From TrEMBL:
Predominant localisation class: membrane
PANTHER family attached to this UniProt entry: PALMITOYLTRANSFERASE APP, ZINC FINGER DHHC DOMAIN CONTAINING PROTEIN
Similarity comment: family membership: Belongs to the DHHC palmitoyltransferase family.
Reaction catalyzed: L-cysteinyl-[protein] + hexadecanoyl-CoA = S-hexadecanoyl-L-cysteinyl-[protein] + CoA
UniProt protein name: Palmitoyltransferase
Alphabetic keyword roster: Acyltransferase, Lipoprotein, Membrane, Palmitate, Transferase, Transmembrane, Transmembrane helix
Bias (Polar residues): 330-339
Pfam families per UniProt: DHHC (PF01529)
Domain Palmitoyltransferase DHHC: 153-277
EC top class named in words: transferase
Amino acid sequence: MQNSSPIKCCSDANLPIEKCDYRPIMSQKNWEVFPGRNKFYCDGRIIMSRSNCVFAMTVILIIGTTGLFFAFDCPYLSEKVTLAIPIVGGLLFLFVMGTLLRTAFSDPGIIPRAQADEAAYIEKSLAPQTMEPGVYRPPARQMDVEVKGQIIKLKYCFTCKIFRPPRASHCSMCDNCVERFDHHCPWVGNCVGKRNYRYFYLFLVSLSIHCIFILGCVIAHLVLLSKELSFLDALKETPTSALVFIISFFSVWSVAGLAGFHTYLVSSNLTTNEDIKGTWAAKRGEKNENPYSEGSLFGNCCRVICGPVHPSLIRRRDPVIPEAEKNDVNNKTNNTSTAISIPDVPPTPPIIHDIDTESLQSQSAPILGNRTSISSDTFHDESENGLLKLSSV
Ligand SMILES: [Zn+2]
Ligand SMILES: [Zn+2]
């Protein structure tokens, strides 16, 4: 099979054959042929959005400010006040950088796009059954699912060719559908979604504490120095403290404000996207409760911060499986003539990549059809009767 795989051709015909990039597709990894606008580093281990200049600015700002603080304030404070100041500052800095890099470099919860046969299957399944000859009626582009008694509309993504699971949205910057999409954050150079939201939240909280800590220490440094000298002389003695003070003072308001806003979202199990769109706001006087809320502040916080970390669905470091080989697998498992050939009857429910992990479970397995790329953890049903109701609208 491997011998008959198509090969990647060298773009420069003048290069000697041994220098050409003749690699069988089997030796390529999924990240090398990834259709979205993401950038990959370290052989696909790191995934980021295409534009990460603002992320570089975030890193420089944090490292620069903390570096100035350690170089010019910490020696004085550790001698005059306590040695705990540089230790606490160092630990906070490490935690901030750890959560920042984890948010920036990880898969936020990208949903793989449908393969050509899957997209064709969806189109076929959704096409009106009683179509008059010569009359084209576009298939329905919405579906309803029921989550805890709440009807949620699943929208069809024309780019990814899938029905987006509840809470998912297509990021225009990264060109991917992301599970439990919160927002695209240029400051961390990545989407914030189901797989990295907790690290993003911890980053905001720890950065707020770090800013307040540095601000307090710098003020203490200037006050103590002013007692020995005049205030102006103290500023002349340590001008970098004044600079660190200005940076921290202006940063702390925005960072702490954002941390406060996300604390409200975490305690309500909401996403920024849902909050802005008012997804769960009462409509026309009718009650419209968030079905994902645990019902208590503590339950929601535990769910978002301490819930299980779901595996990445894009399997970016796995080898690329040639289309022909996928079709072989599909044919064996589905007993159809070719992967593009769609069974006429009976119309099985349309393929959905994966319904939100927080809402539905094994009852929904049949809607997957012959997909093999969905991880087993993607279906959980929190609805009372475990019922998935799907109907085209
Ligand atoms: Zn999409
Ligand atoms: Zn994005």
